[in-house]
Write a structure and sequence with these properties.
- This protein is of the alpha+beta class and 151 residues long.
- The longest helix is centred in the N-terminal third of the chain and has 10 residues.
- Helix content is 25%, strand content 30%.
- Strand 9 and strand 10 form a beta hairpin.
Length: 151
């Protein structure tokens, strides 16, 4: 799926901005392109968290359903933003729902993709300083209805 323009796009995403061109090419070689229709659920709370999403076009709403059934919108992401990174790091299930608000085109990277790429010793989900110092979505840190946060 790798094209030069896609690699250039990924490098413009703040999470990946500091990576070398070779690292970006390696990530793009394992990334997949996905499209979601408006209103389509990308993932549900409690789904296994194995994928990071980088939005190329469109908007995605991250939300929770309260105990009384009301939707609580946490954040809306758009072009150039990413979401789903917390589950990539901690390996736990999804902490919220993600729903396409309009047609969404995105790149996806599996948790295992970081391991494939890190096999070169150049990049890894768990050792990169970028992951330690930057959150794609700080507003969507694991949150509960009782107000606790888990980063």
């Amino acid at each position: 799926m790798q094209t030069e323009s896609e690699a250039v796009y990924l490098k413009q995403v703040p999470l990946f901005a500091g990576l070398e061109d070779e690292d970006i090419r390696e990530l793009m070689s394992v990334a997949k392109r996905r499209t979601f229709r408006s209103g389509e659920v990308i993932f549900h709370r409690e789904d296994p968290g194995q994928v990071l999403y980088v939005i190329k076009e469109g908007k995605v709403k991250i939300s929770l359903i309260s105990p009384d059934g009301q939707e609580i919108s946490l954040v809306v992401f758009g072009k150039g933003e990413c979401f789903g990174e917390i589950a990539i790091l901690d390996g736990l299930s999804r902490s919220a729902d993600a729903i396409a608000m309009e047609k969404v085109e995105c790149y996806t990277l599996q948790r295992s993709d970081g391991e494939k790429v890190s096999g070169t010793g150049r990049h890894t989900w768990h050792q990169s300083r970028k992951w330690d110092s930057y959150r794609c979505a700080p507003d969507t840190a694991r949150a509960g209805f009782d107000g606790w946060l888990v980063s």
